[in-house]
């Protein structure tokens, strides 16, 4: 009973932090505009997946809530070639230590592919980042002209 009550107070504390941060930012954001500015159509899927998840309870685009802002994450990992795989795994497994001692809860219900889309959106928020573009199919090889004579 004591542990259950303690967990209840912890949850209430996190909720108070989250609600308080929204009250103090006083900024209305149009999610569609934000997505297009951050990475265009390539970021829409990751943003939509994040909106369906509980990401925004602990993170926001610009401000630290419980965890770091998405822009802070993007800045830290923008030149890391393994960031998509590394951060996708962090979303699914959870963990602590990279941004302090407050743990990030695991999200085992999120697939590796969906976590990757979420990370691509986050990385698109880095200053000067170029949005991820879908791969274009290779053009068929053309034969070199044959000279006669």
Outline type: elongated
Task: Give the helices and strands as they follow along the chain.
Answer: HHHHHH
Rg, alpha carbons: 20 Å
Summarize the amount of helix as a percent range. 40-55%
Question: Could you name the key traits of this structure?
Answer:
single chain, 149 residues, mainly alpha, Cytochrome Bc1 Complex, Chain D, domain 2, 0% strand
How is the topology of this model organized?
Elements: H1 2-25, H2 31-39, H3 41-52, H4 70-77, H5 83-93, H6 112-123
Helix pairs in contact: 2-3, 3-6, 5-6
Folded structure, characterized:
- It holds the Pfam family Cytochrom_C.
- It comes from Adhaeribacter aerolatus.
- Residues 1-23 form the signal peptide.
- The protein is mainly alpha-helical and 149 residues long.
- The chain has a domain at 39-124: Cytochrome Bc1 Complex, Chain D, domain 2 (Orthogonal Bundle), CATH 1.10.760.10.
- Helix content is 51%, strand content 0%.
- The chain has helices at residues 2-25, 31-39, 41-52, 70-77, 83-93, 112-123.
- The protein starts with a helix and ends in a 26-residue tail after the last helix.
Q: Brief description of this entry?
A:
This protein has 149 residues and is mostly helical. It contains six helices and no strands.
């Amino acid at each position: 009973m004591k542990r259950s009550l303690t967990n209840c107070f912890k949850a209430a504390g996190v909720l108070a932090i989250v609600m308080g941060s929204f009250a103090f930012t006083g900024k209305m954001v149009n999610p569609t505009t934000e997505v297009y500015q951050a990475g265009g159509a390539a970021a829409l899927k990751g943003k939509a997946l994040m909106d369906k998840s509980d990401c925004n309870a602990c993170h926001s685009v610009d401000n630290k809530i419980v965890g770091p802002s998405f822009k802070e994450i993007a800045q830290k990992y923008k030149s890391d070639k393994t960031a998509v795989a590394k951060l996708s795994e962090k979303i699914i497994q959870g963990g602590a230590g990279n941004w302090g001692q407050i743990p990030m809860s695991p999200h085992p219900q999120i697939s590796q592919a969906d976590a990757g889309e979420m990370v691509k959106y986050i990385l698109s928020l880095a200053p000067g980042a170029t949005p991820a573009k879908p791969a274009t199919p290779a053009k068929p090889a053309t034969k070199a002209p044959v000279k006669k004579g």
